[in-house]
Amino acid sequence: MQSVFELGLDELDAIVQKLPKTGVIVLRGDLASGKTTLTKAIVASFGIKANVTSPTFSIMQNYENIYHYDIYQNGFEGLKANGLFENLFEDGLHIVEWGDENLVRLLKKYGIDVCIVDITAKENKRIYEVSFA
């Protein structure tokens, strides 16, 4: 099942309500498409007041029971090499920026449901395609 939303960056609550509160969410899109901005909205929806930033260099940020990964530079192999792949099996919500089909396939192999959000920038709006694997 796939849902498509075309929203302004100030309308993110509409999509956040459709996303799971636990498990793994994979965010895909070009640079500056809004992956970290969506993550900020998700974290805020839990009532967590945190300075959410892209974990490009740290690879993972933790906001209470929400784990935010960025595997742009290191890919899926980097996630494994840094010992973070096992974290995806822990309770909580795991948001992975730049996740790819290898990650989705492996998580499915272990019985983990994955929500995939593909983000496309369109002028001052974003198109969010939400699907579940």
From TrEMBL:
GO molecular function terms noted in the UniProt entry: ATP binding; metal ion binding; transferase activity
GO biological processes: tRNA threonylcarbamoyladenosine modification
Keyword Zinc-finger: no
Record carries keyword Phosphoprotein: no
GO cellular component: a single term: cytoplasm
InterPro entries: P-loop_NTPase, T6A_TsaE
Pfam families hit by this protein: TsaE (PF02367)
Cellular location(s): Cytoplasm
Keywords noted in UniProt: ATP-binding, Cytoplasm, Magnesium, Metal-binding, Nucleotide-binding, Transferase, tRNA processing
Coiled-coil ranges from the UniProt annotation: none
Predominant cellular place of this UniProt entry's protein: cytoplasm
PANTHER family documented for this protein: TRNA THREONYLCARBAMOYLADENOSINE BIOSYNTHESIS PROTEIN TSAE
Protein family per UniProt: Belongs to the TsaE family.
NCBIfam families xrefs: T6A_YjeE (TIGR00150)
Record protein name field: tRNA threonylcarbamoyladenosine biosynthesis protein TsaE
Organism in which the protein naturally occurs: Campylobacter hyointestinalis subsp. hyointestinalis
Gene transcribed to yield this protein: ydiB
